[in-house]
Structures are given as structure tokens and as C-alpha cells.
Automatic annotation (TrEMBL):
GO terms for biological process: regulation of carbohydrate metabolic process. The lineage of its organism: Bacteria, Pseudomonadati, Pseudomonadota, Alphaproteobacteria, Sphingomonadales. Pfam families: Hpr_kinase_C. This is Serine kinase. Keywords: Kinase, Transferase. InterPro entries: Hpr_kin/Pase_C (IPR011104), P-loop_NTPase (IPR027417).
Length: 141
């Protein structure tokens, strides 16, 4: 199923970047890619469930395309990755949380955080969010 989100993979685990148009999903993805993440999809990903694992893949019609605001569209390598965390980008995210919430994607529970994308450390904070709250990578046969 097509899911309206941008996603990147960090160490084989996908982070879904969700939120309203213009909130900064592609910009956060670009910052994460600059730090070593790999694009799954920009402005839409294909989610598919295989057992207890949710996978994110690039949609065929936009695979590898990432919009860089005020610059244009670039083509990047893509991967398919296990969904480990959903971040809903919003400017009114709580400053402190004790634990992640839960969102259902593809009929599976996924750790979820409201996430403020503003500030120079947003990519680092997203990496820490994945490390602290993301699902572990499941090895598949």
C-alpha cells in the first residue's frame, strides 16, 4: 500500500518521516542522508507486511527521486528496509518524553514520536530517536 511519508534507512532500519506538506520531511531526509542514511522514498513509500515485519520500499514511479527545496529534484540510490520508527514532524512536539507512543502502520504496531524538525541538530536527534525507541532489526532468511 502507498503511504504518504518520506523514509530513510539507517543501519537497515527505516524511519518514516510523516507530516503536513512543507513541514520539512525531505529536508530532514537530506540531512540524514548526508550523515549516511539511504533513501527509501520521498513523498511516498510502499508499505508491505511480511509476517510480523513491516517493510518500506520506494514506489516505482518516483524511486530514487528526492526534492531538494529551492534546488530541484535529484536522483539517489534507494533501499528496501524494515520499518522501525515513525516520526510525525510537527512544530508543537513535546520537549521531553519518557517513552515512545505507538502507531499502527500496515496493521502492525510501530514506535511513534511527535518530532520537531527545526534546528541544526534535527538529524542527530532523529538518529537518537531511532536508537532509543526504534524496533530492532530482524534478520530474515
Amino acid at each position: 500500500m502507498l503511504h504518504q511519508a518520506t523514509a530513510v534507512a539507517i543501519g537497515g532500519r527505516a524511519v518514516l518521516l510523516e507530516g503536513e506538506p512543507g513541514i520539512g520531511k525531505s529536508s530532514l531526509a537530506l540531512s540524514l542522508i548526508d550523515r549516511g542514511a539511504v533513501l527509501v522514498g520521498d513523498d511516498g513509500v510502499i508499505l508491505s507486511r511480511q509476517g510480523a515485519i513491516l517493510w518500506a520500499a520506494p514506489p516505482p514511479h518516483t524511486a530514487g527521486l528526492l526534492e531538494i527545496r529551492n534546488v530541484g529534484i535529484v536522483t539517489l540510490p534507494t533501499v528496501i528496509a524494515q520499518v522501525a520508527l515513525a516520526l510525525t514532524l510537527t512544530t508543537d512536539a513535546p520537549r521531553y518524553i519518557e517513552r515512545a507512543g505507538e502507531a499502527t502502520r500496515g496493521d502492525l504496531p510501530i514506535p511513534h514520536l511527535a518530532f520537531d524538525p527545526r534546528g541544526p541538530a534535527s538529524a542527530v536527534r532523529a538518529e537518537y530517536a531511532l536508537a532509543l525507541h526504534g524496533l530492532p532489526r530482524t534478520e530474515t532468511a
